[in-house]
Amino acid sequence: MMWFNKSAQIENNTIANTLTELGTNGVNLSLDELMRYQSKSSLINIKAVRNLQGKMSGNYLARSKGRGMEFDEVRHYQTGDDIRAIDWRVTARTGTTHTKLFREEIERPVQIITDLSHSMLFGSKLLFKSVQAAHIAALLAWHAKSKGDRVGGIVFNQALHTELKPRSRQQGVLHYLNALIKVHKDSFMKQQSEHQNTNSDLYFEENCLRARQIALPGSLVYFITDGHNINNEAIRHLANISKHCELVMCLLSDPLEHELPECKSQLNVSITDGKNRQQLTLGDNRTAEFYRYKAELYNKEIAQALTKAGARLMHFSAGCSIENQLKDGVASWTR
């Protein structure tokens, strides 16, 4: 459930205004709030930064050299070079044979993998992590569409898996947005009915495997999750994705997952992650310090494992709008 302490209530007006601006109640998803990001696509700039191995034509320049649409550089002629690419002007000027090199245009499908499992149905300040995840996915999808890219991927929770083949134009984006809404609603209904018998770690692992299977070499893969269900097998699948694709892990967290809220007097509260319930004492310095230490240790371990697997990491909070986080430089999408 959305949980507010006394100090957070002071910010109610600001929070209410932000929710109104975002067109959301912070808990449920609607198509209108995801359509809003069509006008925000300029907030990010997706560029290829790794060698691409696809062989299809498209809108991104590969680091590999070959015959293509975009001139790259001139160098000394080497045995085996295409004689049609000889630069006769440079050759005449220098007295040695030079050849032109080109960067080949490679198609760069954008695969967005969005985790909407039970651990994502939590928020203490502004939005559920699941809602913020959908907003990030929508922003990515609209940006890809604005660049003429095909959008596809996977939307999943602890029991439902929706796979979307990359499509171009607005049809591909709308197909993905509707999948977000459908799976999110399913997650919420299952949480409300307390049908949570599925092994979330195993299901997360299976979706990592499927993402590995559908990601064509050279794809740009965004994986949006809180990382709570990542295990060693999932890391292995992600490492395999990063060998042939550019993998970016968008790690979502809530402010309460980093530190406990301040409290002038000690107060015993009950908290839950959707599966387990625990008692905590607010206003106790030792408890707050230990909580912060354990949170930092956990986040560090997850980050190290993902970095070792070859993923780039971007951290987002569910306690602040995406626009503000990008404008404040919390997460930079320009590469």
TrEMBL record:
Alphabetical list of Pfam families matching this protein: DUF58 (PF01882)
Determine the domain of life of the protein's source: Bacteria
Please report the stretch or stretches of sequence annotated as the DUF58 domain: 73-289
Q: Which InterPro entries match?
A: DUF58 (IPR002881), vWFA_dom_sf (IPR036465)
Q: What is this protein called?
A: Uncharacterized protein (DUF58 family)
Q: Which organism is it from?
A: Thalassotalea piscium
